[in-house]
Amino acid sequence: MSFKLSRNKVNYITNLIIDYIQQNEELDYVEDLGNIRFKIFHLIMNELKMFEDIEEKAKYRISSQKKNIPEGSREWEILFRKYSNEELDKLGKIW
């Protein structure tokens, strides 16, 4: 579930979104495009940070099990998915 993107990649995605907004005649906006770009960039970065935090919590829960569960094993993957989904549910998000 790793969502690691560099700032350059997030910036690139943000610019693609801004280009789409500019070219789509059906979209109206009153805010300055620079401000919109800034907000989109930070929204994406915040979402990535949230997923990183969820990943860390899930990994911690797996490592705190009495039984040693090797990372990458089928059991580890199942627990990781389960714990990640539980964290997303707490935040009201879906995956």
Summarize the structure.
This protein has 95 residues and is an all-alpha fold. The chain is built from three helices and no strands.
Strand content: under 5%
**Spatial shape:** elongated
Question: Largest sheet, if any?
Answer: none
Count of alpha and pi helical runs: 3
Structural class: mainly alpha
Q: What is the rounded Rg?
A: 18 Å
Helical residues, percent: 55-70%
Average pLDDT metric: 93
Number of domains: 1
Number of strands: 0
SSE series: HHH
**Which runs of at least 5 residues are low in confidence (pLDDT < 50)?**
none
Please report the distance between the alpha carbons of the first and last residues.
Answer: 10 Å
Which key features would you list for this structure?
mainly alpha; 95 residues; 3 helices; single chain; 0% strand
